[in-house]
Design goal:
heterotrimer, A alpha/beta (about 300), B mainly alpha (about 290), C mainly alpha (about 220), B: mainly alpha, MetI-like fold, C: about 220 residues, mainly alpha, 9 helices, transmembrane helix (chain B), Amino acid ABC transporter permease (chain B), MetI-like_sf (chain B), transport (chain B)
């Protein structure tokens, strides 16, 4: 009897919880003016296992980031993804024959990207994924579709961090399994015990807001997004010290799909779609960029 | 129980206890009040930090995350119970070739931390071409880890059953497997129920480790939501809500155990175990 | 073997941090757990209630969530300065608070195994409640407490690996560095697993033998 009462209470409580509620979003970045991605029909990619799997499933699963404003960001209140990486992912999906309603996004943190691709959890990955040789041994890359550079995010009031050489003795945060953290370790930019590692950049930014660390380091594109979100608190130092070509990560042996994606990117470069996507997302902060040359292999 | 340790207090002791009670209340209220003040002072009670709770999408996503947690728990629990039963029987087998490997497997998986297992399944195995979805990796890890603990619990339960049970079964002409499956295991299961359930509570809590390998469970969602700038990074409110959800689930499970135990005691099929078996099993189930 | 040899400093410092985490939090949670157990059997109802609430809350919360709270949420309350509250300290705090709830239960059930006569006799001698617990009951309870206590400590040792997700470079965190270096993570993880097996198996054997030697028919 008591069990039944409990069950009923839970059910009613659950209903009450879901029955009333707000929709919409407190964030202004929700609406994107990016061009609607065209959906191609009758796409064929011969010899691509990944593509065959997508076709059979009738859906494409794309790995993205969900906490990087202007790049890959999920609005918690609407459940919608937005940003430059998302638009690129959408563009590719459209040209592979999958419209918006056929896309499932899966948030995958940096450290799990290779596993998510090799495990087949996702079909491809678009999320500030730097093309590098060690990674090419596990996965392959289409693109690059953007080139960022490593930079530093600090508190607005901070004046003593001006670039990578002023990091000595400062607490620096970045993400496990990312190229920036490797660079900090390899070049010994700060003491080993001053390096803080988390799973996502937003956790580093939280720590910066709390004053527990001195700087967050990663690509300027990511940092600019956080600075734009909270301009009263943060600023980007603006002295990049690396080249980070972003690629679309996909299965190691899927050359057919890689070629197809490169074709799609090339077309978007040529007909101005890329520029439109850039202007409506990353370019909103005023910085200019042009598409980088593709490196096909 | 507590009356064992102290007599009914006399007038002096009563005054002392009252004094201590006042001190206790002051200390507890002090601590709680201090924490609450820190909450208030750092703006944790601001409407903005709790605003997220009103959005339907967030409520649904939170429920989805909860369902994912429960799914991993359900699959893990069923498989772990099976694994435990099989390997407990294996360890009690008369054949050394069954007993040896069963023991090695059970001891190995009890010794390796679940985190390492999850990493191994999700990050390690793909490098040799074995694919694992996060869900499969979480369930497999939970099964192997909790299953081997359950195997030990079952074994302790079976060993502490009165010998008459198996002797009578053999006398009826039952075969070894029959004795195990029809007589010993069900009784051990019933007798060990409280311990088993507390191990299942551990299993439920361990699903939270799934966030380390991108399984989209409750804690991962809490981390995602807690970092959202537009809600003022509501880490503390989200932690409180999620903690409440976990605690409620675990307490429900424990309540179920109590209920089953009570019903169990009423039924006549119950067999009283000797004490050592019971304490051993309790010792095993420590998280 | 190559993976281990080539990254020996990484493995050693990881294992060392794990052991450090384990030892500090073991001592901490033994002390806190015993105090909690004493509160739980105390004649003062408020103490009992407070300890019960603490134990119920902590035992039913995933350790990962406790870690999450102390790594991310707790610093927001600004109770201690962020400089002194490193991730290592956060990990130790989480481990101690969580494990002490389990230790409290183990000690309390041990206290229950001490025969009534012992408590009665010590009262007859005029010992106070605290004296009786610390001089008579707890030393005797120790016998039945130690085996489950060892299990709890084994669990604690294994639980230290959760700190890997919260910026503490212990054994569980070796994987991510290996993967950054492009080394074979699977073999690396097997070495880490072996490390734990080597530590845990002797503890299990100790627990078994203590259990056998100290199990007294009462």
């Amino acid at each position: 009897m008591r069990v039944r009462t409990l069950a009923v209470t839970l059910l009613v409580g659950g209903l009450a919880l879901t029955a009333c509620g707000k929709s919409g979003s407190p964030a202004d970045s929700g609406s994107s003016s990016a061009p609607q991605a065209a959906v191609a029909t009758d796409v064929k990619v011969d010899g691509s296992k990944t593509f065959d799997a997508m076709k059979a499933r009738g859906k494409v699963v794309i790995g993205v980031k969900d906490d990087q404003p202007n790049l890959g960001y999920k609005d918690a209140a609407t459940g919608k993804y937005s940003g430059f990486d998302i638009e690129i992912a959408r563009l590719i999906a459209g040209q592979l024959g999958f419209g918006e309603d056929k896309i499932t996004y899966k948030a995958v943190p940096s450290a799990s990207r290779e596993s998510a691709i090799t495990n087949g959890d996702i079909d491809y990955y678009v999320g500030t994924y730097t093309i590098s040789d060690p990674r090419k041994e596990k996965v392959s890359f289409a693109g690059p579709y953007f080139v960022a550079g490593q930079d530093l995010l600090v508190k607005k009031s901070n004046t003593d961090i001006t670039g990578k050489d002023s990091l000595k003795g400062k607490k620096v945060c970045s993400v496990t399994g990312s190229t920036p953290i490797q660079r900090v370790k390899d070049q010994k930019l700060t003491d080993a015990d001053k390096i803080v590692e988390f799973q996502t950049y937003s956790q580093c930014v939280e720590k910066l807001a709390q004053g527990a660390i001195d700087a967050v380091t990663t690509d300027d594109a990511i940092l600019k997004g956080y600075a734009a979100q909270d301009p009263d608190n943060f600023k980007v130092v603006g002295a990049t010290f690396s080249q980070e070509p972003y690629g679309i990560g996909l299965g190691h042996d899927d050359k057919a799909l890689r070629t197809k994606m490169n074709d799609v990117l090339q077309k978007a470069y040529d007909d101005g779609t890329w520029q439109k996507i850039y202007d409506s997302t990353l370019g909103k902060s005023g910085s200019k960029a042009s598409p980088p040359p593709l490196t096909r292999y | 129980m507590s009356s064992v340790l102290f007599d009914v207090p006399g007038p002096k002791a009563r005054i002392r206890h009252r004094l201590l009670a006042v001190v206790g209340v002051v200390v507890v209220v002090g601590i709680v009040g201090f924490v609450a003040y820190r909450f208030y002072d750092t703006g944790q009670f601001d409407a903005k930090k709790w605003d997220w709770i009103q959005y339907t999408t967030i409520q649904q996503d939170l429920l989805t995350a909860l369902m994912n947690t429960l799914q991993a728990f359900a699959a893990g629990a069923v498989l772990a119970l099976l694994f435990g039963a099989v390997f407990a029987a294996g360890r009690l087998s008369e054949h050394a070739w069954l007993r040896g490997p069963s023991m090695v497997i059970v001891e190995f998986f009890r010794a390796v931390p679940l985190v390492i297992m999850l990493f191994f399944f999700y990050y390690g195995l793909p490098t040799v071409g074995i694919k694992m979805s996060p869900f499969a990796a979480v369930v497999l890890g939970l099964t192997l880890y909790n299953g081997s603990v359950l195997a030990e619990i079952f074994r302790a339960g079976i060993l502490s059953l009165p010998r008459g049970q198996s002797e009578a079964a053999y006398a009826l002409g039952m075969r070894k497997t029959q004795v195990m499956i029809q007589v010993l295991l069900p009784q051990a299961l019933r007798a060990m129920l409280p311990t088993i359930i507390s191990q299942l509570v551990v299993l439920l809590k361990d699903t939270a480790l799934g966030f380390l390998i991108t399984y989209e469970e409750l804690l991962r969602y809490a981390g995602f939501l807690g970092g959202k700038f537009e809600f003022g990074r509501p880490l503390i409110p989200v932690s409180i809500v999620v903690a409440f959800m976990y605690i409620a689930m675990c307490l429900l499970l424990t309540a179920l155990a109590r209920y089953l135990e009570k019903r169990n005691r009423r039924s006549k099929k119950h067999v009283e175990l000797d004490d050592t078996g019971k304490t051993e099993a309790v010792a095993l189930a420590a998280d | 073997m190559d993976v281990l040899v080539n990254n020996l400093p990484l493995f050693l410092s990881g294992f060392f941090t794990t052991i450090k985490l384990f030892l500090i939090s073991a001592v901490g949670s033994l002390v806190l757990g015993t105090i909690l157990a004493m509160l739980r059997v105390s004649p003062v109802p408020v103490f009992r209630a407070a300890a019960t609430v603490y134990v119920t809350l902590l035992r039913n919360t995933p350790l990962t969530l406790v870690f999450f709270f102390f790594a991310f949420a707790f610093p927001l309350l600004k109770i201690v300065s962020p400089d002194s509250f490193s991730y290592f300290v956060a990990a130790i705090t989480a481990l101690i608070l969580y494990t002490s709830a389990f230790i409290c239960e183990v000690v309390r059930s041990g206290i229950n195994t001490v025969p009534v006569g012992q408590a009665e006799a010590s009262r007859a001698l005029g010992l106070s409640f605290g004296q009786m617990l610390s001089n008579v009951v707890l030393p005797q309870a120790l016998r039945s407490v130690v085996p489950p206590l060892v299990s709890t400590l084994i669990a604690l040792l294994k639980n230290t690996t959760i700190a890997a997700g919260f910026s503490v470079a212990e054994a569980g965190a070796i994987r991510s560095t290996l993967s950054e270096r492009g080394a074979d993570t699977m073999v690396g993880l097997l070495w880490v697993a072996l490390f734990f097996v080597v530590l845990v198996i002797p503890m299990t054997l100790l627990q078994r033998s203590l259990e056998k030697r100290w199990s007294v028919a009462r």
